[in-house]
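Chains adopt folds. We examine one example:
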Amino acid sequence: MSELLDSLFRTSRPEGRRWTNDEVAARIKESHPQIRVSGAYLSALRNGKRTRPSPELQSALAEFFGVSPAYFVDSDHAQKVLQQLALLEDMSQSGVRALALRAVGLPQESLQAIVTVLDQVRKLQGLPPVEDD
């Protein structure tokens, strides 16, 4: 649980910065007043000093970070989510996200032209071709 929760904290970056334990606890209390949680308790969960949050808190944490509650109980699902989060982080760090945002709303023929140009640039740089899914 600790590694999974800590991964969500490390990869979720509102406005380019990481959430603090206190911020997440406050947001969860706002949306779920019946759940008792504090920044200190989240810190203990993240570092493994506490290991068994209530199912309600697990669900609220999943909701807050935008993942399925299965993330905390199904290791295969968690692995898939972590891979997706890593890809998003890589995209953000490499500028791919900025490129993708500029492509939103363009017609299909324009997108295809951009793909053709990118394929040519990859070739000129000696990079392997990209296989479309």
